[in-house]
Amino acid sequence: MEESKLSLISFYYDMSNKSRSLLSDNEFEDLDLNEFFSAVDFTSSCVGQQYLYSILRHGGLSGIDKYETLINELTRNKILRKKLVDILAKLKNTDAYNIASLLSENIPNPSSHKLLLLSICRFLPFLFAGITLLTHGLVWLILFIITFISNLILHYASKKNIYQYYFSIPQLVRLLKQMDSLVKERQILFINEEIVQTLDELKILRKRLKVFNMGIRLESDLAILAYLISELRSIFFLTEAYTINKALCLLNGKRKKISDIFCFWGILDTLCSISFLREQLPYYCLPSEVIKGERLHAVEVYHPLIPNAVSNSIVVQTKSVLITGSNMSGKTSFIRTIGINLLSGKVLHTCFARDFAISSKVNILSAIHLTDDLLGGKSYFLSEVDAIKRMIDSVSAASSLFLLDEPFKGTNTKERVAISKAVLSALAKENNIVFVSTHDIELSRLLESDYDLYHFTESVRDGRLTFDYKLKAGVTSERNAIKILEICHYPDDIIRDAYDIVDQLEYK
Questions:
Q1: pLDDT in tens, 193-217
Q2: Is the domain covering 3-280 a CATH 1.10.1420 domain?
Q3: DSSP one-letter string for 186-243
Q4: Which of 135, 311, 454, 485 is the most buried (most CB within 10 A)?
Q5: CATH superfamily, with its number, for domain 296-477
Q6: What span, in angstroms and rounded, lies between the C-alpha atoms of 466 and 81?
Q7: Contact 437, 323 (CB under 8 A)
């Protein structure tokens, strides 16, 4: 997704939920959630897109489960869904991303003196023009010219101040107008039964904003002549300046109700999106709570971003999970699969599995896709230390799912094994679940009291490397790394030397 478009989509999250987010930037990148968002986004409007991104980025329970009956109705009644989608699509213009700014910015209220000045000045040119026509007096003509020039200054001074709302306010008017059409479908009022009353209470605001909306439409769509006539009318009577300043006074007081409308629209669009998403999946399930004696139960779980993904099943009872295996065998993808299913269950009430059960109170913390922070002056190892320190600090704060991929690989073997054993034992305490992948077979023996052992394998046959991507119990017994070098035609002397060293190390 383009960076510029992502910044527009994320704006609602940035100004509303960012400080309360349960997912850090680290987890968002580790789980490839930008790509996941693109894959699950079937929204029809900019508002719906912003709302979907916001709840996904927040990472907590979204409340979508309360609307499961409505999702099923949308899936079953495609005529209703199409009717709703056609209305929602009225806010697909990118200008609609700007509506969110009206929910966050503290819009300055014009002073009472300014409103009084505008209310008086808007009639003076008309008054003096009328007297001039009746009396043909030069004084009245001069007064007419002075008041017209004054209104000209007031008009463009006001236009400069409200220019920042030239995209958001017309789209807000469109949102309110289309809401009238939406609420005619009685089935969707389940989302918020008070939304009709909220719309009624915003009628005065809509009326005040109509003139401003017409000005924008004329400026952008009609001929230059029509625009000039509109501008002259606005200058002569200060129509735009007076109306918009009165509307800005109302906007601050109505922000909560506008937010209710925004969320209603966003939830509905998200529900339609989920119904479309489920139709695209090979299979899915609703998340459920685990039974006594289990902490995670996943049956034929798969990753939604992997084409023709191989599914796996796992049950976590008292211990956590340590996975061994070679590169590309599926370790990291499986760890991400567990994380993405927990997140999707909480946010979209949809899991990519036959069955997926885990406590909904579990939070996600990860250390998977770490890199050097050159600008911040941090090495890979130090970045990893910081990420895992966050996990350690949260061990007793709440139940967490910790996802780690080859921890502490930025240091030497002896210290890596020692640190990994100490850290992984600490993380497995309380009611936390740890999924960790490693190449260090030594950890299997050191952690077997706290971790169930699993592995992925590859096969080397007839000079070809193949993977089945199936999770297997126990520790991997395959040693195919040197065979892979042979497949890649490394020199024979290097291959022989490597085998000799392995034999020596095993003897010791």
A1: 999 999 999 988 888 777 655 444 4
A2: yes
A3: GGGGGG-TTHHHHHHHTHHHHHHHHHHHHHHHHHHHS-HHHHHHHHHHHHHH-HHHHH
A4: 454
A5: P-loop containing nucleotide triphosphate hydrolases (3.40.50.300)
A6: 44
A7: yes
